[in-house]
Amino acid sequence: MSYSPSSPMLCYSPRVTIVGAGRVGSTLAQRIAEKNLADVVLLDIIPGMPQGLALDLMEARGIETHNRKIIGTNDYADTFGSEIVVIAAGIPHKPGMSRDDLLKTNAGIVVEATKKAIARSPDAIFIIVTNPLDVMTYLARQATSLPRNRIMGMAGVLDSARFQNLIAMEFGVSPVDVNAMVLGSQGDLMVPLPRYSTVNGIPITELMDAATIERLVERTRHGGAEIVELMQTGGAFFAPASATCLMIEAILRNESRLLPAAAYLQGEYGLENICLGVPCRLGCGGIDTVLELNLTDAEMAALHTSAESVRENIERSQEILATAGDSQQ
Question: What is the DSSP letter of 93?
Fold first, then answer.
């Protein structure tokens, strides 16, 4: 008995590149492949590591019943033609380390990675995951001059998911019945919005007293630090990978999902020339629109305080990059 294949057909298969094969990057690669969203290129500077991770993930394909290709590499040439590039490279958040402490090392890493990636995939949409996220998103946009629809940061989805989970645990309901909204920078100055956070459509302000809500808000603000302190050897990676995967799915499947993301603002919320977490509609073009919520004076003031902190860190990071550039001349 012989088998004669039919004429070969050209089939389109989207490609997502993940720069940084650490815990977040490797978990994200697994999420993307097992959801059958795209082929994955996993890139890292450590020889052998991304190749080993890719082989391990490929060997699970038969068990997980998908046929996505996962490529591990140290060469940006292998990322050619990616629809989406995720920048997850950089040093992790460690116990006792503020997000600002990450600036010095991660600023240079993100700028270099973004420039190398866009040279191979000039039409790609970029999602920044490296911390401090809002600052890194701004630097990546500055380094590439990308229009704002094609570059964003993953923060709001993760922070909202943390708020969502805390509300669900407090009220004793499934998290799928909870919708939560968090704006602003990722970190202590993020702005959870109880008025826009609901349980099956009912605002939590009608279900919980003010003290309970404030306790959940504060725990959300310190959610990442709480995990770092518990783990001692690193930070969260399961939820960040899931949050990034949700954004990728919305883009590749053109789902027009309304999700909070770090976007470049052009006058929205009275803010300009800054990347900050705001509600965005995500589709095949990236950020289709930025939604302006009707905020109270107190909520708007909190958002502007959050923005000012990000702006200060942007200025500091630019000084760091300028100094590094001068030292190399």
Answer: P
Judged by phi (left if over 0) then psi (alpha if -120 to 50, else beta), residue 97 lies in beta
* Residue 45: partners with Cβ closer than 8 Å, 6 or more residues away: 74, 89
Q: What is the DSSP string of 251-292?
A: HHTT--EEEEEEEEEESGGG-EEEEEEEEEEEETTEEEEE--
Omega of the bond leading into 132 within 30 degrees of 0 (cis): yes
* CA 67 to each of CA 85, 86, 252: distance values in angstroms, whole numbers, following the listed order: 21, 21, 17
Q: Which tokens hold the place of 212?
A: 């309970």
DSSP state letters, 127-157: EE-SSSHHHHHHHHHHHHT--GGGEEES-HH
pTM equals: 0.94
Residue bearing tokens 């990308």: 146
- Cα separation, 242 vs 92, in Å, equals 17
Whether the Cβ atoms of residue 195 and residue 295 lie closer than 8 Å to each other: no
Q: Are 183 and 277 a contacting pair, CB within 8 Å?
A: yes
> What residues form DSSP beta bridges with 87?
19, 128
Q: How far apart are the first and last CA of the chain?
A: 68
By the 8 A CB rule, do 109 and 150 touch? no
Nearest to 162 by CA among 72, 263, 235: 235
* 302, 293 Cβ separation under 8 angstroms: no
| Whether 218 contacts 194, CB under 8 Å | no
CA distance 298 to 305: 11
CB 32 within 8 A of CB 69: no
Please answer whether residues 246 and 156 qualify as being in contact, where contact means their C-beta atoms are separated by less than 8 angstroms. no
What are 166-210's pLDDT values in tens digits? 999 999 999 999 999 999 998 899 999 999 999 999 999 999 999
Write the pLDDT tens digit of every residue in 299-320: 999 999 999 999 999 999 988 8
